[in-house]
Structures are given as C-alpha cells and as structure tokens.
Specification:
Structural class: mainly alpha
Order of helices and strands: HHHHH
Number of strands: 0
Strand content: under 5%
Number of helices: 5
Radius of gyration: 21 Å
Number of domains: 1
Low-confidence stretches: none
Length: 123
C-alpha cells in the first residue's frame, strides 16, 4: 500500500540514504583518528610500526588499516617533520569535516521536495 506513495520519491530517498552514509563515513575519518595520530606526532607512542600486507591473515582488516595508516604517518613525519605533518593532517581533518557537513546538508536538501509533496497531499 505504501509502495504507490513512495514510488515517485525513490530517487530522493536513495540520494538521501547515500549522502547520510557518506556523512557517517566522513565523520569517522574526521575526528576518531586524531588522538592516536597526535600521540605519534608528539612521540607519546613509542611503538614502531611496520607495513602489513593488505591480504595478511594474521590481523583483521581494521587492524591492518590502522597499522598501515600509522606507518604512513610515521614515514611522513620522518620525511617532512612533525610540524608539516600536523599541518597536513589538520588540512585533511578540515576537508573531512567539510565533506561530512556537506553530505549532511545535501541529504537534508534532497528531502525538501519530498516534505513539500507530503504536505500538499495532507491538505
């Protein structure tokens, strides 16, 4: 029964769902990884990270991703210095926040025609 009411808006709903998922993904990258990276930058973490192959069966995919990210951060620190790496990471987190916010508001904007149409149907 609801199918006939939802059918004209599937494009809007699909776009809103995709943008909400992107917003959540960018939210993960925007701030959740900042503390461990700052620990590496300010040498509070003395762990020496080695590159782990992506198809390694010893670790889970999340552990491989985090380890390799820390490995690349330590390489960038060694090559460009801590202050330049901090500037680069600040720009990266700023970009992730901008993308997250853009996707969130884009999702809201996509749903505006859907809200207008549903208000017209009630009247």
């Amino acid at each position: 029964m609801m199918k006939r009411y939802v059918a004209p808006y599937t494009g809007y709903l699909g776009g809103a769902v995709v943008l909400n998922i992107l917003s959540a993904v960018f939210n993960i990258f925007s701030f959740s990884l900042i503390i461990p990276i700052l620990q590496i930058l300010f040498e509070l973490d003395s762990t020496v990270y080695q590159f782990v192959p992506w198809d390694s069966a010893d670790m889970g995919m999340k552990d491989i991703l985090v380890n390799n990210m820390y490995y690349y951060v330590t390489i960038v620190i060694g090559k460009y210095g801590a202050s330049n790496t901090l500037l680069l990471l600040g720009c990266f987190f700023g970009l992730m926040t901008l993308l997250k916010t853009g996707c969130y508001f884009g999702s809201s904007a996509i749903m505006v025609p859907d809200r207008k149409a549903s208000c017209r149907e009630r009247v």
